[in-house]
Write a structure and sequence with these properties.
Layout: H1 2-10, H2 16-39, H3 48-57, H4 61-66, H5 73-92
Amino acid sequence: MLKKAEETFSGPDGNAFFADLTKDQIELLKFQQGLEKRQGKKIVDLSIGDTIFELIRSGAHDQAERLKKSVSEKRFWCIKIKGFVWLAFRSQV
């Protein structure tokens, strides 16, 4: 369904901005589906921020870095710090 939306937005009467947003969502869903298969936990349909947070919590920092381009630098570091704080808290409990 998202692919059809992207095609509609990319058409002559479409909107390039919405086409790009739809393409980004398709890429995120594919990425999340792959993670779900590898990690065995529910990741599909999380926001980009929650996906990055879950990656940091699970120790997959390199994969979190792959999503860095999808959010601002400031937002990425806020999520990353939140993840590290969560890890530090969990290690103390």
